[in-house]
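Table 4 source record.
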Amino acid sequence: MMTKYLVLLAVLVVAYLFWRNARLKDDRTSGGARKGTRPARGPQEMVACRACGLHLPRSEAVFGSSGAPFCCQEHRLGSGS
């Protein structure tokens, strides 16, 4: 009776090892990047919202007519800038 469980455990361990090996091999061939992930970008310049002080990347900021950065359109419109 105990040998049944040992055989089952051995089959599960072998299946896990095959699965893990295939996954690691796939990671090596794709350069380590997983599907659906974006490559890491370098550091970006941060700016502070003139209305609330929130820091955000310059590329995501909304700028007023005077060039002041804001975190969203509502803050830009609410500040009168």
